[in-house]
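Progress report, Aim 2. The chain analyzed during this reporting quarter is listed below.
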Amino acid sequence: MNDKTTAFDEFWELSSLDVFNLQSFAQQMNAYDSEGKELLLSYPEAPRKLPRPRTRLNTITKKRRSVRDFSGNKLSEKDLGRIFSSFYAWNGLEHRAYPSAGANYATEIYGIAFHTKKHEGAIVYYDPEKHGLVQTGRAAPAWDEARTTLNITVRGEPSLLVIFVLFSERVTSKYGERGGRFALLEVGAAIQQLSLQIADSSRLHGVIAGGLLDYYWKNVLGLSGTEARIVIGYLVDV
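Predicted structure tokens for the chain:
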């Protein structure tokens, strides 16, 4: 590493996906034995059960699921409003729908509109203050091309791909290396908001896509040459 490269930078580079390491990534996943995976820790004492509260949030959480079958139907403006409200700055830019270390908000949200009534074929940026979509002037790739860069098996065509982009320097400039953890926790909180929003809908469904090709999508979004990091995506359909 040079003097300006952090350990977080090195981790990010080593965990990035591109055409050069995609095959080895696929081989590693195929070699994984899911039958032997550990899902919880064990202790000698039996757990003491707790009361299960009947709350609105628990009702929504119970409905959360991943769906990989897509219809390609068009999302309405109302659908888009619901999806992107997951990231709305309800009480100003420092008080959004999910937390951020130091209220620095390192996460930016983009949408690849494959099938929507107002933005079809466009790449949009979500403005969390105005709760609106900004047309970036860049065209969305065709689904046949995009699907080869997501490393996920689905059926049919989704309506929208939400992409979570991280500008981690907004956090690491204050917290140093520790800020890298905080930045990833922020993205996790944001994607949980979207997951619960979709679970609470009778129309929407989708699945998280964690294998996006970093440099491909960074270029598609017009962010090459910036400090942006492509973190994860979410495919949505109706």
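The helical segments are 7-15, 22-31, 56-62, 77-84, 143-146, 169-175, 178-199, 214-220. The chain has a mean pLDDT of 95. These observations will guide the mutagenesis work planned for the next reporting period.
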